[in-house]
Amino acid sequence: MLHQMDWDSLDDSLTALMDDPPHSSEPPQPSTTNISEHEFSCHCCYDILVNPTTLTCGHNFCRHCLALWWESSHKNECPECREKWEGFPKINILLRDATEKLFSEVVQRRRSEIQANPKISRSLLAFQRYGDNLGRSRTNQHKGAGFFFSGVLTALTCVAVMVLVYHWSSGVVDQHDPLISKPVAHWTPEEVVSWLDHLGPWAQLYREPFMQENVNGRLLLMLGDEELLKPPYNIENQAHRRAVLAELDRVKTLGVKPPQNLWEYKAANAGKSLFLLYALKRSPRLTLFYLYLFDYSETFLPFLHTCCPAITHIDRSVESSFLNTQLEPNWRQWAEFLVKYLLLPYQLIAEFAWDWLAVHYWTSRFIIVNTMLLSVLEGCALWRLWTRARIRSLPRKMWNHLWKMLSQGFAFALLWPFVPQFVCNCLFYWALYFSPIINIDLVVQQLMHPETQAP
Question: Looking at domain 36-135, which CATH architecture does it have?
Answer without folding.
Answer: 2-Layer Sandwich (3.30)
